[in-house]
Amino acid sequence: MTFCKSEVSRRCVSALAGAAMLALSLGPGTSLAQTVPSSREEIQLSYAPIVKQVAPAVVNIYTRTVVAQRPQSPLFNDPFFRQFFGEDLFSKPQRKTQNSLGSGVLVREDGLVVTNVHVIKGAEEIKVVLSDGSEYPAKPVTLDERTDIALLKIDAPGIDLPVLQLADSDALEVGDLVLAIGNPFGVGQTVTSGIVSALARTRQGINDYGFFIQTDAAINPGNSGGALVTMDGRLAGINTAIISRTGGSVGIGFAIPANMVKTVIVAADNGGQVVRPWIGATGQTATADLAEGFGLEHPGGVVVNTLYPGGPAEKSGLAVGDIVVAVDGKPVADPQGLRFRLATLPIGETAKLTVMRKGRELIVPIELHAAPQTPAPDETPIGGGSPLAGATIANISPALGELLGLNGVWTGVALTDVARGSPARRVGFRPGDVLLKINGILLKSVADVKRAIADAGGKWEIAVRRGDETETLKLD
Q1: What pLDDT is attached to residue 67?
Q2: Annotated catalytic residue: which of 100, 169, 193, 224?
Q3: Which domains are seen in the chain, by residue range?
Q4: Which of 95, 168, 410, 423 places its Cα 20 to 30 Å from the Cα of 76?
Q5: What is the mean predicted confidence (pLDDT) over 124-143?
């Protein structure tokens, strides 16, 4: 007989749930020795012991942001009202305070809190509220926008802070029971239960390292930054986003895996700057058609199509046409999965890539390095009367390309900033745009852009790469 004490375990709950379903399918009178609940204690299993253990480590986060807004009413453009109230009232932006809320998780006794960047971005004041109602001001330690992970620090001397230990998120399996804890809609801390619906969800467009745990535990606005908890009381991930047409939960929620959170915490301990491995290779998903052409048994993996000269991938012996199917034994299905697996590894170590080459499986060791920072960026603001006025441009290096999310773009010129209200912003330029040509002149450096602008003569034909698309802007 399987007996479950008050301390609920993942194995026990899963076994009992499965046994109950099997018993229903087999019908009355069927004996399921050592599986079917046989006592009141087994039937009355509860998540309460886990919740009591972990809920105090999940905090509420309140932020205050001051924004400038111009009056929106059409009356403010009426000269009749202006002559009585003056121009200043209607033309000057009005400062307005916005308050928002989210969730976070205490992960260390020294007051380190994990949340999402989008929960606290731009906030002038951040307040962390513990489950017992005590409040503490918080200071940002690290904001890693590419993963949407933010680390905060609260100072609570003499207080024994509750913490959640991080789980090995790679140990999760589809069907595992999980709890989502947070502060949805500002109603106060709530707990919802569900299962892991999928692992390694990619292409969701949520952050640059899209690789998420999907769960059907109810996640709603305000849950962002909260905890996804395993049945042994560990942090499996940080709840981040949902798919919904109404704004409420429809059972499709996403959490950033704990193993990615660990990399940001390690970076914070080493100075706060998150630097991830770069191998100098790009590729595409091995679709069904490609898999058939390469002789693979099934689709999946990354077909290498570009190598950076002299980069780690080329030095390791990786070749164009190789198909990367795993990193350190962990399978990868697409480029996002490969980026995630590499991003969770420390610089200076050696990863083992499992590669399919002409029908043979190879293990390719590859040293993990930071992306090169050459050439120097030479960041330059553009002025004058060109369509690029108000933009800041820089030489692209592999490091800058990684920072801007320009996957596989290692040379050229990119926009690093576009000032609000500038001609460049009004025309439609964005940070991360890659300048290709101006009036037919190929642009390889900031110096090329300067010369092309000086020689333009008032007519403009500017070719820009944005993501995988190339656009051409023509202006007189």
Answers
A1: 57
A2: 224
A3: 1-45 (no CATH), 59-154 (2.40.10.10), 169-269 (2.40.10.10), 281-367 (2.30.42.10), 380-475 (2.30.42.10)
A4: 423
A5: 92
